[in-house]
Design a protein that fits this description.
It is built from 5 helices and 18 strands. By secondary structure, it is mostly beta strands. It has one domain: Fumarylacetoacetase-like, C-terminal domain (Fumarylacetoacetate hydrolase, domain 2, Alpha-Beta Complex), CATH 3.90.850. The chain starts with 11 loop residues before the first strand and ends with a strand.
């Protein structure tokens, strides 16, 4: 194929314990999937249908590390989430079969320019600039489901400079991973390489340049991000 410009590089996430990488096709994020987070954001935690937003694949930052503090925000927020990496796609996936589509899991942080999101909400505009900005999706190395199974319970937390800010349990997810996959596949054709961030517990809040974020999910992994001033 004769490209008229250089072909963009493919975003990829390391697979822990190997020299292999997982190519990222699309990033889907589930909104308000923990009841306590729904409450803190001013919403009813009843089991409404899930809703989704997306980030570009090149928003992925493999293994975190030092990152420049994002531009055009005075209110950058952290949201620690379970990352679900699909090894197989499909349409109208049966919930009972959905977990067989999962390659593995990781720890991610959905970084959000909350000030930009708040303005967009008030004006009934899309959230894209609040959610899909550069380097807005740090992700740990993936652990294959063949090694760790399919985590549906266990602590999930995030610390800033050693202090707990978010803390919950995967069993508090309103929509389980298999339900999320099945539901999303009714609207789009999922493919190998898609990743899904499956929601965040309560405690989301701001971070500033100089802060170190440490995210953890039991049995899945750890992720550290340090923000530096531009």
């Amino acid at each position: 194929m004769n490209f008229v410009i250089p072909q963009p590089s493919i975003a990829a996430i390391p697979v822990e314990g190997t020299d292999a990488v997982f190519p990222v096709r699309r990033i889907w994020c589930v909104g308000r999937n923990f009841a306590d987070h729904a409450r803190e954001m001013g919403h009813d935690p009843d089991r409404e249908p899930p809703f989704f937003f997306s980030k570009p694949s090149d928003a992925v930052v493999p293994n975190g590390g030092d990152l420049p503090f994002p531009v055009q925000t005075q209110d950058l927020h952290h949201e620690v989430e379970l990352v679900v990496a699909l090894g197989k796609g499909g349409t109208d996936i049966n919930e009972a079969d959905a977990l067989s589509h999962v390659f593995g899991y990781g720890v991610g942080i959905d970084m959000t320019r909350r000030d930009i999101q708040s303005v967009a909400k008030k004006m009934q505009r899309p959230w894209e600039l609040a959610k899909g900005f550069d380097q807005s999706c740090p992700v740990s190395a993936l652990k294959p489901a063949s090694e760790i199974g399919h985590p549906d319970a266990g602590p999930i937390w995030l610390k800033i400079n050693g202090e707990i800010r978010q803390e919950g349990d995967l069993n508090q997810q309103i929509w389980r991973v298999e339900e999320t996959i099945a539901y999303l596949s009714r609207f789009v054709t999922l493919e190998a390489g898609d990743i899904i961030l499956n929601g965040t517990p309560a405690g989301v809040g701001p971070c500033v340049a100089g802060d170190t974020l440490h995210a953890h999910i039991d049995g899945v992994g750890d992720l550290t991000v340090h923000y530096v001033a531009r």
